[in-house]
Amino acid sequence: MGIDIFISRPTNIAEEFEKQFTHFNKFLKRAGFNPVRLGANKYTLDAPLRGVIELMKTCQGAIILGYPQYELNTHISKGGRIIPGIKGIKFTVPTPWNQIEATLAYKDEIPVFIIAHNGATGGVFDHGVTGEYVLNLNLKKNEWYKDQEFQGVFSAWKNKIL
Predict the structure, then answer these.
(1) CATH architecture, domain 3-67+94-161
(2) Which neighbouring-strand residues pair with 66?
(3) Which helix (H) or strand (E) holds 113?
(4) pLDDT single digits (tens) 6-44
(5) pLDDT tens-digit series, residues 100-137
(6) Residues near 61 by Cβ (< 8 Å), separated by ≥ 6?
């Protein structure tokens, strides 16, 4: 069955992310883990926060995936006037549950692996905030979890659990 690890991610993500997450989930299972998520393969009659608290207590590690929950496109203005020549600044906003679930994992003192889609920032996704390494990747990329950088950080995280 494997070692239970908590996966933090939005319930609904874009199809191109979901396809790669499915492959990543299989990779985790082959690596000896049992990925669990409230509302995906674990359910409760409790309020979501209470359910996450209880589920986290059963896990030996957590992976926080900073998928875009919201994407904002904007422009820069100064003094109320749009600055010409600067177009399309894009902000990627992950789900607030990433922050809650990461905090609970830290509280329970289980190893946390933080992976942010390129552009995802704020809280646990800001370098230096938690003291943990934040891995920035293109989570739309085919088999992103096979990249050398991912494999190195994953191995270090896995060693904390085993």
Answers:
(1) 3-Layer(aba) Sandwich (3.40)
(2) 116
(3) strand 112-117
(4) 999 999 999 999 999 999 999 999 999 999 998 777 778
(5) 999 999 999 999 999 999 988 889 999 888 878 999 99
(6) 3, 5, 6, 33, 105, 110, 111, 112, 113, 157, 160, 161
